[in-house]
Amino acid sequence: MSTEEKFNQAKGAVKEGVGKVIGDEKLEKEGAAEKVVSKVKEVAEDAKDAVEGAIEGVKNMLHKDDDK
């Protein structure tokens, strides 16, 4: 999980909260959108890491088979 994405999610939450408090619907929606975009990026990053890990696992299994 990226620190940058966590920061962006927090920033979005603050914007959303401030928008609600002051009655600025546009700011509220911008904050909510920032949170969603950051979350999607975080999930995509995690998925990429998982796929890379799986590929490395398969490569390691194949190399072990080659050593036999």
UniProtKB/TrEMBL annotation:
It comes from Streptococcus cristatus AS 1.3089. This is CsbD-like domain-containing protein. Belongs to the UPF0337 (CsbD) family. PANTHER family: UPF0337 PROTEIN YJBJ. The lineage of its organism: Bacteria, Bacillati, Bacillota, Bacilli, Lactobacillales. Signal peptide: none annotated. Residues 4-52 form the CsbD-like domain. It holds the Pfam family CsbD.
